[in-house]
Amino acid sequence: MFGRVKPLDAILATAEKKSLHRSLGAFQLTMLGVGAVIGTGIFVLTAEAAQKAGPGMMISFIIAGFVCAVAALCYAEMASMVPVSGSAYTYSYAVMGELIAWMVGWALILEYAVAAGAVSVGWSGYVVGLIENAFSIDIPDLLVRGPYDGGLVNLPAMLIAGLVTWLLVIGTKESATVNAVLVAIKVSALTLFIILALPVMNMEKFEPFAPLGFGGIGAAAASIFFAYVGFDAVSTAAEETKNPQRNMPIGLIGSLAICTVFYLLVAAGVIGSVGAQPQMANGIGLEPGSAELTAQCAAIADQAVVCSKEALAWTLREIGWPQIGNLVGLAAGLALPSVILMMMFGQTRIFFVMSRDGLLPASFSKIHPRYNTPHVITIITGVFVALFAAFFPVGLLANISNSGTLFAFAAVSIAVLVIRRREPGRHRPFRTPAIYLTSPLAFLGCAYLFYKLDEKSQLLFVIWAVVGLVVYYAYSRSRSHVGRGLVEVHEADADAPPQPVPPID
Questions:
Q1: Closest to 158 in 3D by CA, of 143, 142, 137, 138
Q2: Which of 121, 161, 364, 501 could be stapled to 386 by a disulfide with Cβ–Cβ 3.0 to 4.6 Å?
Q3: Average pLDDT, stretch 293-302?
């Protein structure tokens, strides 16, 4: 079960054989991380967190950020030691064997595809709100919300998923250039929100601080964790990084630190200016994205931040800045597609390396003759992302995505400890500090957040994992290159994907 380990030296030799152009420095990696991290989590899930924890979501951000920080430290050692594409999948293959690696890769597929769907839904909320407020029109909910959320189909979310798929198919150079501009727009919008919201803070709005107790704070942390995922997408660009042993850890931890500061300031601005008390029935908080919450919000004419699909823009309109609110809505509408792009980008690269290892069909790594991109798997991914976005609410998608992410992070936190004990002499440009404390903390933190997810998300993850095991034993195990003894460097392994992320000027 754990016998098929892909030797680290073979993984590194394959990376050298591919000879991808290394062009990304620490600053570019940090910007990529910020671009992948800041998105739906803070723009949209602020309302979800408020419904679960009230003002206590400040603690939720800290809990989720801490778990991500210790996981990032584990990631940083593995990413600097194994600077190849594939993220947690590749690290697990080198340390814990093929079956665990397959399950991690399978979980990452769930993470990236569903997360891209969640961001698409978040984008839809802001764009619809912007159009309705700017032009004083009312767009029917049937066409802009999924069936769980009081509508029929979310057409704008499907549209943006399709557009991003097209962009990735025609070439990733354009994608990276667009990403650089949109990171600046996102950060500017959040900075403007903080400048306008913090001065009107009222400390009375923070009472009661935890209306649903610490259980609500933990549940909000499990959802808010989505606001931090994306930094692992940085490690999928390891093969294009100059001096990865130095720059990967800086990119991972630097982007996380920047985002955490933004998140706490934005959350404080929302709570202190308009309040963030959850909608309740019989003393119990209503589930975000549920028909019950939709009905109760309709009864109060959506006059609560927890009812909003565009929390930050709504908050600015409420405190007397309607045009700035529209501007933040526009910024979200422009910027969130960059997060969808990074998620789908990471998804296709995970597929690519799994295909290269023989665990998935070779056609998945087929390169378009004109655009030089993995078009087959990009289009397949795009179709599923569009379907997720069309029919499911953002909170449910975020939680399902979190389940896959937490599994992958937990695997890396174990892998870094195992490889430290097994190969203590291997060169480690970055060493995780206090490894015997950091690694168990990362694992236990991931386990706690998974436990605090809603039952639907946990059940769907278990079903996904079972399907993954069936696929592995029915198809992948017998076709695995490692299983067939093909661990040396082959010409077939030199088929590099297009260089994903050119330098950001």
A1: 143
A2: 161
A3: 84
